[in-house]
Design goal:
The chain is of the alpha+beta class. The protein has three helices and eight strands. Bound molecules: ligand LZKTLF4L and cobalt (II) ion. Ligand LZKTLF4L is lined by residues 9, 36, 39, 41, 43, 54, 56, 64-65, 67-68, 71, 77-78, 80, 101, 108-109, 112, 114, 116, 118-119, 124, 126, 128. Keywords: Metal-binding.
Length: 135
């Protein structure tokens, strides 16, 4: 089951510059910065009450973020939902006809297992499912 919007992903050219901008905008500093090599990104997380913002900068030209910025410029990249059981949710969504971009959950940032749905099947919105990894 989807429980809430976990974060909004924003593609940026420079995390350093965008950290400064979002710190001013949100009046709060980032609580975490983390690279996710498998995704070719480095991330920076802000929290405003229950809402999280994830800034993403590409770490190589093949990164999905690099391709996105090349095509569309900086901006909102994806909407991430928290799920309580990512495998069950992936199965449900696949049954509903959505296209999963990964067959099994993969390690994301901020201690999560993640899976993405193709934006072509979600009205042009890249959707990410996130399940907290319980140590
Ligand atoms: C996991 C770490 C972190 C976390 O939260 O834990 C992250 O969030 S990492 C985020 C970066 N990783 C990903 O985005 C992985 C999933 N994304 C992909 O597999 C690709 O980006 C994909 C398949 C969405 C697009 O692939 P690609 O860019 O190579 O293909 P195209 O350029 O041909 O795009 C196809 C079609 O989709 C449209 N598109 C691309 N990206 C987005 C987007 N973010 N939102 C909406 N639409 C998107 C693109 O414009 C093309 O449409 P068209 O009409 O043909 O132009
Ligand atoms: Co994300």
């Amino acid at each position: 089951m989807l429980t809430n919007v976990e974060h909004i992903g924003i593609a940026v050219k420079s995390i350093a510059a965008s950290n400064e901008l979002f710190t001013k905008l949100l009046n709060v500093s980032p609580y975490k910065s983390e690279a996710v090599e498998s995704e070719g990104v480095t991330t920076s997380f802000f929290r405003v009450n229950q809402t999280k913002i994830e800034l993403l900068e590409a770490t190589n030209p093949d990164s999905p973020i690099a391709r996105f910025i090349e095509k569309k410029g900086e901006g909102i990249h994806h909407l991430a939902f928290e799920v309580d059981d990512i495998l069950a949710e992936m199965e449900r969504l696949q049954g509903e006809g959505f296209t999963l971009l990964n067959e099994t959950p993969r390690r994301g940032a901020d201690n999560k297992l993640v899976c993405f749905l193709h934006p072509k099947g979600t009205n042009g919105v890249l959707v990410e499912l996130c399940q907290e990894i319980k140590e």
